[in-house]
Amino acid sequence: MTGHKTSLPFGDGPGDELGGRRDNPFDEATTARATISADAIVTSWNEGARRLLGHLPSEVVGRRAAALLAEEVSPADVRAVAALPRWSGTLTLRHRDGRPVRVRLLAHRGEPTADGPGDWLLVSPLPDPEAGEAGEVGETGAAEEEAKDEALLALASQQSPCAVAIYDRMLRLRRINDQMAEVIGLPENEIRGLRISEIGGMLESEELERHMVEVLRTGERRDVETFRRVAAEAYAHAWSARLAPVKAPDGEVRGICLAAHDITEQYLARQRLLLLSESSVRIGTTLDVTRTAQELADVGVTGLADFVSVDLLERLDQDEAFVEPPPGPLAGPVVLRRVARQSVFPGAPEAVIKLGQVGTYPEFSPQATSLAVGRPSIHRVTDPVFRRWTAESPALAAMLRTYGLHSMMSVPIRARGVTLGVATFSRHTRPDPFTHDDVLLAEEITTRAAVCLDNARRFTRERDTALALQRSLLPQTLPRPTALDIAFRYQPAGPYAGVGGDWFDVIPLSGARVALVVGDVVGHGIHASATMGRLRTAVRTLADVDLPPDELLTHLDDLVIHLSAEGAVSTLTGDVTPAEDMTPAGDVGATCLYAVYDPVARRCALARAGHPPPVLVAPDGTVSPVQVPAGPPLGVGGLPFEAVEFEMPEGAVLALYTDGLIGGRGRDLDEGLTALTGALAGLSPSLEAGCDSVLRTLLPEQGAPDDVALLLARTRGLDASRVATWDVPDDPALVARARRDVTDQLMAWGLEEAVFTTELVVSELVTNAMRHATAPIQLRLIYDHTLICEVSDGSNTAPHLRRARVFDEGGRGLLLVAQLSLRWGSRHSATGKTIWAEQALPSPE
């Protein structure tokens, strides 16, 4: 109404509008108030103080406060009070008319100022102004005041915002206030005389009653947190219940006062923090995409949802998922693969899409919507989106009817700017829908899981790449030489250790000999695999030169030093940026063992470069490591390698391996070597079964912590009847006799078809030895799966092919040998060299 001024019941400000009316809470006359400086001078005096003592402000302000005292106060008491921040008590003051007045005082020390200590504020309550001046309240007035206080106390107790209930010594309910009646959901007259366990009828009520018994017994109060589901609400409340004994003046416990405080918000906040902490521990325990997704689903149930599903972009969890996921949000229908799920019900029966299956989510679905906008979305089943979705998916509609799902929250799984998939949280047993706080919690948990998923995805991609490279560099099949039975196993490290650089090889050599190789490159990852491939190629190249084991390792050591220097230069120039899981460029290192078995002599020569020693299983079953100097690892340089030679009778087994077989968790190499010798004792006649038995015995079920290579070779000596040897005098006239001896031997072996070719080869090789080398000259034929012709002499000069001109009388011998043979070559020894040629034999009919 125009021109009409409205105001608050107490006016617009202290003292405004109501002025001195008795219902004005800011009336200056309702409290006696004065201030006294630190040196005991009165600095202010209000109307209430005048009413209390009769002095006008002009008569008191600026004078010493001690003049108002009607009793003696000792200096020690004054000093004691001056040291306190607050004081309360009773003093006898002097009224203006000279009579003493007993006054209750409360004194507060003010904040200090730049001029010195703060003033003291003294206040004292006054009787109701309607009762007259101070001290004029009679017995009738006092009774009225007491009645007012009792009425106010009763109203306050009944209408207190704190829920309160009073129980007697028998734990029977006597009184509750309005707030407790609202909490319980029943009025006082319907539950008076019942115990709390009878009123609540829940386990939480029985637990409270047990605490109440303890309060009665001890007389000490207790604080208990409990939970109740309010009938009028759709969610559970958390309560903090304070149980205090009600005592008579003599200290006897007469009952219990229960005060309940709603701490639901604090409880939910604590639960969210606990769930976040739990997610940090439980999510990302492995570098496996599927397992990490399952950990996300497990954490979401039951702390946040009743059913959780995790869907990733199709093929993201598969081996061929090398393509980087698309950056940014995804628009339109999305195709996702179900990789994890969890439910409050065993077996997750709510799942419409089964594990491993691919589902297409329409663009209006909650999952597609959240992926399109790049943030979480909440939907109720009553939303138009759900009605449209269920109309297109009868299976989804049936699930909603069966389990009563009412609220769904979809959270995109994004990490490092790319979208990996979506996590869907659903509720059906919990009646409360998802809230904004639930969205923040789910987003935080999913974000942490997304980083772990992306790490697992990147690790899987890196590991698969390294494995593919490693498989391409390792031998797919091994030759089956006549001299040896071969069995091997190669087992990559466990899924989270990284691919190493272990390798092995079996290399046929001249003279029916066989080279056996195992090696291990330092480090893991693609760099280790690539280095392994280079070293394996180098070993095969050096083996073709027929170098002794110690010399071969010396050349290999030079190569590793060269690779290290090459990598260091690339790093300094910025041409190479090593990945975190690779051996850094410039830090190449490896170990290697190289052995050569000669089936004619039935002896084995070997050397090792920092590699574990081989184990020899004798024909009688005796097992022992071969005593051979360790030698420095490859790449150290400047230190020699030493070869040893020992006899290997027919039927002996030589076991070569990498340190991943004998090392491992909590086991040093010496203990592992002892375990290996034990595993090889009683070796099966089948080397394939023997390999499996060794791996089964030495490796843990969950996979080896490092790559493992194992090579078993059982010797088969070449029968002496298959080897023919002749010493050839250094006389050209005796070349014809050498041809005749060879012809006779071939006829004895039944190799008539090889006579002509072999005569030509022998003639050329023996003639060359007589012309260009020195004695002694020896001719040897070896009848294996091929026919090998060897001529040894005392010269170290290496033969070589050359192109003969038209009118040259010589120079065509080795060219002719090369044309007539499968392969040919030379090898050096301590006494000279051997030139050999290998011919194919006709297939038996």
SSE diagram, text form:
Layout: E1 31-36, E2 42-45, H1 47-53, H2 57-60, H3 75-82, E3 86-94, E4 100-109, E5 120-125, H4 139-159, E6 163-168, E7 173-176, H5 178-184, H6 188-191, H7 196-200, H8 203-218, E8 222-229, E9 236-247, E10 253-262, H9 264-282, H10 289-300, E11 307-313, E12 334-343, E13 358-361, H11 366-373, E14 377-380, H12 384-392, H13 394-403, E15 407-415, E16 418-427, H14 436-473, E17 484-491, E18 501-508, E19 514-521, H15 526-544, H16 549-573, E20 590-598, E21 603-609, E22 615-617, E23 623-625, E24 644-647, E25 653-657, H17 659-662, H18 669-680, H19 687-698, E26 708-715, E27 723-728, H20 735-749, H21 755-772, E28 777-783, E29 786-793, H22 813-820, E30 823-829, E31 832-840
Antiparallel strand pairs: 1-2, 1-5, 3-4, 4-5, 6-7, 6-10, 8-9, 9-10, 11-12, 11-16, 12-13, 14-15, 15-16, 17-26, 18-19, 19-20, 20-21, 21-24, 22-23, 22-25, 25-26, 27-28, 28-29, 29-31, 30-31
Helix pairs in contact: 9-14, 10-14, 12-13, 14-15, 15-16, 18-19, 20-21, 21-22
Main features:
single chain, 845 residues, alpha+beta, 22 helices, 31 strands, elongated
